[in-house]
Each structure stands twice: as structure tokens, then as C-alpha cells.
Amino acid sequence: MKNTLHNEIEDESSSAAKENSSQFLTFTIADEHFGMDLHQTREIIEYAGVTQVPLMPQFISGVINLRGEVVPVIDLSVRLGREAITIHKRTCVIVIELQSSEQHCVLGLLADAVNEVIDISSSNIEDAPAFGAKIRAEFIQGIAKKDEEFIVLLDAEKTLSPKELAHLVEAELQ
Amino acid sequence: MSLDAVLQTFYVEAQEHLELMENVLLKIDEGECNDELLNEIFRSAHTIKGSAGIFGLDHIVNFTHVVENVLDRARDNEITLEKSLVDILFNCRDHIQKLVSVNLEEFNAQSELQNIGKDLLEALSPWTSSDEESGSTQNSQNLETENKETSSAELENENDNCWHISLRLSADCLKNGMDPLSFIKFLTSLGEIKHIETLIDNFPNTKNYDAEALYFAYEIALQSEASLEEIENTFMFVQDDSNITILPPSAKVDDYLHLIEKLPEENQRLGDILVNCGSLTKHSLEQALASQSHENINAEEPKSNHKLGELLTEQHKVSKEVINAALTKQQQNKSKASEGKQIRIDSNRLDHLINLIGELVINQQRIELLSKKTNNPVLIEAVDDFDNFTNQIRDAALNLRMVPIGGTFQRFKRLVRDTAQELGKEVELTIEGADTELDRLMVEKLGDPLTHIVRNAMDHGLESIEDRTAVDKDIKGQLKLSAYHEAGHIVIAISDDGNGINKERVREKAIEKGIINPESQLSDNELNHLIFHPGFSTAAAVTNLSGRGVGMDVVKRNVEALQGSIDIDSKEGIGSEFKIRLPLTLAIIDGFHVEAKSTHFIIPQATIIECIDLANHEDIKGRHCINLRGDMIPYLNMTEIFNLTPSLDVSVADALAQTPTKKELVIVQFGNDVAGIAVDKLHGEIQTVVKPLGPIFKALKGIGGSSLLGNGDIAFILDIPQLIELAITNEANNKADAINISPNEK
Amino acid sequence: MAEIKITQKRNNSTEICISGELTIYCAMAVYQEYFQDIKVKELTTIKLNKVTEIDTAGVQLLIMLIKIINAQQSKYQIESLGEALTDYSNLFQLNRYFVDFEEFNSISPQKSEQSQ
User: Fold this and answer.
1) What number is the ipTM of this complex?
2) Looking at the whole model, is its pTM more than 0.90?
């Protein structure tokens, strides 16, 4: 297996059980900061190349072998309507697990860097602005501010719904 | 075993017995009727009733009891199974099936179901013996035996059919939802409980009392005509750590003494209880206990209690042997019956095993790869042996999941019978190749498509009796279900000798529905395939069986989901044949590893005919077509079809090395189609585990799944039929022809 | 869920009134809450007529209760069995434990059998 290096993210929900706050994993894509509900993330692995799947739209970077499991890797940047991510030495893959949709689905997301796990109390989360974020509003769960920087909290269920992705693939193939 | 698990066993068994009943009824319906069949169906009904009784499923018991009664009378030749009764029995069987699917509460809430039951019982009434009658005979019998018992109290075991049952059930019994109440209730259905002694010796002190544990123990005297097996079956769902002794009416004193010895309670007390039960007489007990104390004195051993049983058994040695012989015989009979029986395994566990073996196969390939690099002959040889065993394990494991198609076919007998009656047609169903084995997963998913095709064949294919007479055909329509192996696939064929597909009407209909243009020229085969188009139906009159215009397209989709294909062969006036081709298994395939532009592909081995060097063959008229020993073979280029560009990971040098377009051609066959697949490199045979690509890639045609290679790389498994379809679509799109049917429409 | 009412009466007697479903689903709770540390007086009257459903766990609970009562040198009498218990008792031939006081004066189960 080539992906031997992976850092498990410790679930520290017990230690930081502040009221009405949730934990987010923050990461960076092209100098923009994003956050994702920690409970949806499974692990972070080093990017070691992907196997391209023929005829796929650009947002599907390819598939990887994650300890015997074939996992699709999504270029989140393309999915959010931006340029494709530039692969470099420190590019990593955030492995997430979506449960609520009809079936459980494991996906990898490309990111330039993974920053930290932070607690954000709900009072510090603002609604997504209707415009200006250059990201479709329904993808955004909210915007948080930390150290004078904005963090876009993504709604993984909406952004990465397997159903929606499958539709996009179908559209591409026609 | 938890109650749920036990109930599950009950449902599975009930289902089996219901299937058995159906098969017997079908045979009887066809005119075959003998004692064996009647016994078989009676036993099935009886077992369903019995097991349902254990679980207190009274709605099943009450209804099935009457059915059983009728079957019992038929068995005793009191009544004959005439056609009208068989029809009712079919309905009764179906009703029991419905009853099994609901629990008591649900049943009580469904007045419709209750009414159906009442109506059926009403319909059965001419054949039932009145309940009062049987009740009264039973009563008089009881009186008789009671009299006998009192008069012959001195003579032990005078009563011929008084069983003694000693129950020390598992303490967890109640927690698992098994209440002894249900056993005792069930025993009353087998006979009369003469005496039951509830022992409370095992109660602990107040501190240790667990209100959910079972402390009661039971000694039961049951007067019954039932066989040992029937009585034993009462307790078949009880946990293993229960201690149950059943002594037949013929048991001798020492058997009882042995029992006393075995049980944890004090001997004298147990003896009294057995006397209370009427199972032992005071006299024989005194005798036995006397010899115990006698022995005690002689041996001067305070703990000789434990030896008591043995000693007494010695005394009665002869009778003991007789009984032993009898018991052995009974056991032999039982083991004979259980031969050919099967173990039930949770299918999830089996799937898990197969997944693990899949991983084993991958790892084995990795080891093989590594061993070859070492050039160490001894190691390579050892790995070869390992390879051999891995394959055997794989095959054996896959075999576990294979089930014969026969069971599925069998179910169609009933469908055909009922449908024929409904349509007023006469149909004879023949079944061939029922032993052909298929992956269980596929068998489950085949039911629906097969049902559609069979209904369709009976509804649209086979003509009415008048029409058949008019064209001089036997009024009995022929329908055949067969299964066989063909080139690494399994073929399931459904054929009829009906009217065949009326191609003109198909054409008209297709034009009318806007599926094809009036000008389009279609081959017969293409016309036939139009019936798989969504929303296509040619039936002039819409019946409630088929003809709603859904069906055949669903059939096709279901079959494709199993990585199979469906074909029609139809001749007007002579009949039609549907052929469903399926892979042998879905979990692991034998494949051929090829590469195109650094992308790895696996071609299912079963589809491959040969590999040739494309450089030695020239394209015919600039088309992707070659002449192979006189045959025109179209081929498709992987690089073009999948629009492949060298992967980012490949260095420029590698990419350059591949530029010379020396192509290899793999010739594949699927159904009647032969085609070539042009690739860059052939890597050789490989065994591989199918890893589904997941819902996101559902729309991707031509790739059926993915697989891990020995070195951890991912390869794509080609779906040959889809690939051929894809090539045809591309071709069709290139030709600016009028045809606008595309197999890819969904 | 069964309802248990324990009344200590002035005439040196205790009345235990059980109603509802006395089954395994509540046996544990009933035992721990009411019976395990129960103190009874010279005479204990058990009223069972309002027991609507009883299973083996429930009957065991009653037997245990009787044992506890016996251990405290109290006599017990059962006042009206109720249909559910009557059925059970008939089937298992337990009448010597569950005798309606109306028909029979207080009877304690055969002590010889219980003392071990």
C-alpha cells in the first residue's frame, strides 16, 4: 500500500464539550480557508497520486486505493467553481465519510494544507452571505471568523452529495 | 440465540414448508396423488402449526390447525382431494404465508385478513370433521385412560403412552423471550398433561434473586400418541445449556432412577415427585431407595448417593440394554433423516468470508510478484503452491454462495398455473437444468425479471385455445425454463411455442410512440429489441398481468445490473426465446490484465477468444474493422473510447517509449457479437476481486467496476457488453442516420 | 407495568395489592423496588384480582414473594386470583401455592419441600 502515512484525527469532543459549539477541521485551498464538521472527516493522508477514471468531469480527480478500498477523490476547488487545484509536495487528501444520505459514502478531498481542529460556538457562525462568496450559497453552512480571517464552513452533505455528483457525471457523459 | 434469531429460524423454516406444500399441491393438481405426497404436505402443515404454537402465534395455529385436519383426513383416505378442494388448499397455503408474515398484533388489526381466513375455513368446512366430534372422542379416551390408571395404580407403566418429561431449562430462557408457558401450552396440543410439578428448589436467597432468570424446573407426565421426535421438536428452539430428558412410555424404573440421579435436586424428593407425576409407583421407588440405603451401609461411603443410579442400573441390566437398543434405533432413524440436511449460515457472514478471501487473493498476487523479483526458485515454487491453494480456497468459498436455480424455477410452476387459469389458456411448463448453480445474490435478483418474462410469454406469446386450434397447434401451450453453462456464463432461457413477436406491429407501435422514425430501416433483431424500450407495449388489450408498458425495460435494466445481457430470438408463428446471460459470480472474476496509456484494465477472461497483434492486420477501408481469417471483426480503441491521455504520474520518457503505436488486439465475444479491443500492452491473466466503483460512477458505461492489482494500483474492469454497446452508439452517432434509438437513453 | 400497593394495616397485617401486567418486562423493577426488602406483619394478604397478564417471570416473582413472607414467619393468604393467574396456575397445577382465600383458609406451601 502506498498510503502508509496517515494521521488519524483524534475525536476530542469529550475534552471540549462547550455548549453549542462544534468542532471543525480547517484547511486551505489556494489561500482560502475552509472548515468541515469534524465528525464527517475520517483521516488525512498524503497525496500520492490518483488513478484517473476515464471520461470523468474535472471535479473528479480520480480514485485511490485506501487500504483495499477504492475511494473517489474530489477536487473541491473545481466543485466550488474555481480553478483546479495545483498539485505540490504538501497536497493532501482529506478522507470524509457521509452517512446521512441513502448509503454511506467515503470520499477523498484534495486540499493544499490541513490547518487545525477548532471549536466554533454557534454564536460565532454567521449565515452565508447571499452573494460575494463566489460559492453557491447552499454549499455553505456558515462563515466563521478567526484571527481576522474568514473560514467558509462547508456543508458536506450538499456539496458532496453522491446523488448530485452522480448527476453531474451523467451530464458530463452525454 | 436471542428470540429474534429463533423467530428468524421459524420464518425461514415456515417458508420452506410453505414451498414444499406448494410443490405437493402442484403435483396433486397435475393428477399425481399418493400417500407419500399426502404425508409430506400434512407434515409441513403440522410443523408450521407446531412451531407457531411454540411462539404463541395463535393466528397461525388456529387457521393451520383446520388445514392440517383436512389433510389428515385426506391422508386417512376419509376424503379425496378433488379439484375444488385443491384450489381451496392453494388459497389456504397462500393465506398461511400471509399469516406468517404478520405478528399476532398486526393480525388482530387487520380485519380483511381475518375475513379471508374465515371465508377459507368456511370453504373448507365440507371437508373438515366436526371439532366437537374429535373433542368428545378425546375426552372419552382420557376418561378411559384415567380409569385404567386408577385401577392399575400398582402396576407401573401400565399406561402405554404416558411420557415423562423432565425440564431444566437454561436460566437465560426468559431473557431470550422463551417462556416455558409456550412449551407447556404446546404440549397440551400433543396430548394431555396428566401431571406437572413445578420445582422451586432452585430459588436463591433474596439477595441473589434475579427476577429475569428462570428458576422453575418442571417434571411433566404427558399422555400422548405423539412420537419422540414430535415431543422433542417442542424444545428445538431452546438453548443448548438446557437439560431436557424425555422418557418414553416404555421406559423402565432404572431410567427414572437414572434421571433422579442426574438431576440436581435431592433424590428422595425427586422420587416423590415422580410418584406424584404417576410416572413411578410408590412401590418401585421404595424398593429402589431401599437398595440405596442397603448399599450405603455396605459401602460405608457417605457420598454413595452418586453411585446409586449406576448400581440400580446394574440390577436392571437387561431391560436397560433393550432400551438402549431401542434408543439407538430411534437415533439412527433420526440421523438418516438429517442426512442431506444443510447448515444455515447468515448470508452476511458468508459475504464477509468471501470479501476476506478476495483480500487473500490480492495479497497472494502481491507475494507472487515479489517472489518473481527475487529469482529464488525455491521461493517461487513455494509461492506457486500457495497460489494453487489460494485458488482452491477461493473456489470453495464461492461455491458456498452458489445455489441451484431449481428453487427459483420451481416457484414459477405456481405462477404459470394461476396465470393460465386467469387467462383461460392451457400451458405446460417444462424445466431443464434445475441443477445449474448460480450466485445466491443473482438468484435473488433474478426473480423479478423472470416473472416479467414468463408473464409476458403467457400473456402475449402463447395464443388463446381457439387461436391455437385455428393454426393447428396443440391446445396446450409449451413454456420452457432452462438453465445451462455457456462459455463461462450461465444462460437462462425462457422459450414458448406461441405466436412469436409480430414485427410489423412492433414497428407500427414504435413509430406511433415516436420511438423510431417511419423511415428507419431496422433489422429483425433490432425490431425485437424495441420491446425493451421504456414505455413500449404491444398488447391490444391491457390485462392486469402485463401490458402496462412497464416490464421489459425494467427486465433489461435488472439483468444489466447483474452484469448480464438479454437477447431475444423470435419467429412469427413458431415462438420466442429470451436468453439471459449472466456471469458465474459477482465477487471475484478471472480476468486478463491489459494497459492503454498507463491506465490498467481487466477484461473478463470468459469473454476472451484470443489475442492478436494488430500490426499484422490492416484496417478495412479506414474503418475500425479487421479481417480475421475471413471474418469481419470490428474493434474499438481503448484510447479513443475512453479518451485516455497519459497519466500525470508517467514521466515524459515513459510516455515517449509508448508512442510507437504498436497495438495489441484482444478479441472478445459476448452473445453473438464478436469484437476486438485495441490496447497498448498485454499483462496476462489475473484473478481479481470486483470492487464496485460506487454510486458516483453509475453513469459510466463500459466499466463495470474496479479492482486492485498486486502492487496496489487500481485497474478498471471492462464491461464488455456495455463497451460494445458504447461502440455501436458512437458509430451510430457518427452516421448521421435517421435512427434515433440509443441504447444509452436512460 | 404492574402497580404495587403495600399497606401496613393496624390489625397486625400487611396487604399487598398487585395490578396490571406482571411480566418479565417489569419483574426486575418490581422485585428491587418493592419485594426485596419488604417487611410484613403477622398476616400478609396478597390481592391479585387486578393482575391482567402474568408470565413465568411474574409467577416466579410471586413465589419469591411467598418465600420472603414465609421467611418472616408471616402467614399469607391470597385474595382473589384473577383470571390471568388462575389460567396459569391451572395449566401448571400450582394451586397449592395460589389458593383463593375465599375458598380455603390460609395455607402455607409444604414447608418440607422448601427447606433444604
Assistant:
1) 0.84
2) no
